[in-house]
Amino acid sequence: MKHVKWIFVVLLISSLTSFVAKDKPTGGLNTGDIAPDFKIKDMSDKQTTHLNELKGKYVLLSFWASYDAHSRMLNASLSHATQSAHSNVQMVSVSFDEYQSIFDETIRRDQIVTPTCFVETKGEESGLFRKYNLNRGFANYLLDANGVIIAKNISAADLSSYLN
Q1: Of 108, 127, 25, 110, nearest to 75 (Cα)?
Q2: Which of 1, 5, 106, 142 has the highest CB neighbour count under 10 A?
Q3: What's the whole-model pTM score?
Q4: Is 148 exposed, middle or buried (0-12, 13-18, 19+ CB in 10 A)?
């Protein structure tokens, strides 16, 4: 009986503390923040993208990995949406797969042909991963012409409503 009381007390306290920080952001960047600048090269060192160079147009940053089904699905659908209907949006897709071969196969299977699709083979150890605080999950960000985040974790369906 004594143990049951303690279990009840622990359950009660843990349920109360689960409500404490519900209104605070869970991690990463949020709407209204300025997106941190970065420069990334493709594996062949032929193409470099510098986020600051894209100011003046809408930018969709998509951070994902092939092992994360949700982020991979969002990346594929957003890639297809930006290619077909939203020519005023520049998509920058960054995978955190640690092997180039896995990245290449995922791009092939998902039929992603965006010219600004990169792989960061340092994975979760990369500076870009830490800069965008992705330790709580992969995310995508829609930036306005000034580099300010106007939407986070949007779907392909949401994209057109943000741009209209």
Answers
A1: 110
A2: 142
A3: 0.79
A4: middle
Q: In Å, how far are 95, 127, 132 from 140, measured between CA atoms?
A: 12, 17, 10
Largest Cα–Cα distance of the chain, in whole Å? 70
Cα–Cα distance, 147 to 143 (Å, whole number)? 5
Residue the block writes with tokens 């986070």: 152
pLDDT tens digits, residue range 94-153? 999 999 999 999 999 999 876 788 999 999 999 999 999 998 899 999 999 999 999 999
3-state SS assignment for residue 107: helix
Strands (E), 48-158: 48-50, 58-64, 89-95, 117-119, 140-143, 149-152
| Cα-based distances in Å from 113 to 24, 25, 49, 79, 142 | 37, 33, 16, 8, 19
Cα 41 off chain centre by: 18
Domains belonging to the chain, first-starting first, are: 29-163 (3.40.30.10)
